Amino acid sequence: MKTLADVQSRKEITERVGRVCVDTPRQWGRMSAHQMLCHLADSFRGVMGEKSLALKPTFGHGVIKWIALNAPLQWPHGLKTMPEVDQEIDGTKPAEFEADRDELLQLFEKFTRRPRDFAWKPHPMFLEMSEQEWMRWGYLHMDHHLRQFGV
After folding, report:
1. pTM of the entire predicted model
2. Could you state, in order of their start, the residue ranges of all structural domains in the chain?
3. 108 in Cβ contact with 100 (< 8 Å)
4. Separation CA 133–CA 139 (nearest Å)
5. Are 28 and 77 in contact (CB under 8 A)?
6. For residue range 95-110, what is the model confidence (pLDDT) as tens digits?
7. Res. 59: pLDDT tops 80
């Protein structure tokens, strides 16, 4: 299973982010490529405590978390995201593409840096997560949205 704890997986994700262009077409969903970069950045901000996220745990969140992080399935398309990380609602609005990409990569580096200089905040749906779970979630979340744009 790929995880951001692995150097090769981090390199892969960084290279894929570098292949996203402002006009990269989406394969599904409503976000533009630029909005997707801002969405990923906001998601990192939220779990690192730089942006407030409302907790919305689901019934059976422990089982759902295990399936989301461990099952050999791709995450489903079209799930509604939280308003705080939705660029059409309360998420960070795209500004300048290269600057927003650089900001995402800086947050990515901070998220994966050891030792950490922040405390994990609860995941909005899964609540408390271990270091291993955060690194798996980070990989899967970025992979999901990069696949959304064919990179």
Report:
1. 0.93
2. 7-71+82-148
3. no
4. 10
5. yes
6. 999 999 999 999 999 9
7. no
Q: Which fold has domain 7-71+82-148?
A: Four Helix Bundle (Hemerythrin (Met), subunit A) (1.20.120)
What percent of the chain is helix, strand and coil (3-state, nearest 5)? 50, 0, 50
| Rounded to 5°, angle at Cα 112 from 19 and 38 | 45
Total count of residues recorded for the chain: 151
Give residue 15's Cα distance to chain centre.
16
Helix axes 97-112, 33-47, angle to 10 degrees: 30
**Count of CB atoms within 10 A of residue 42's CB?**
23
How buried is 117 (Cβ within 10 angstroms: 0-12 exposed, 13-18 middle, 19+ buried)? exposed
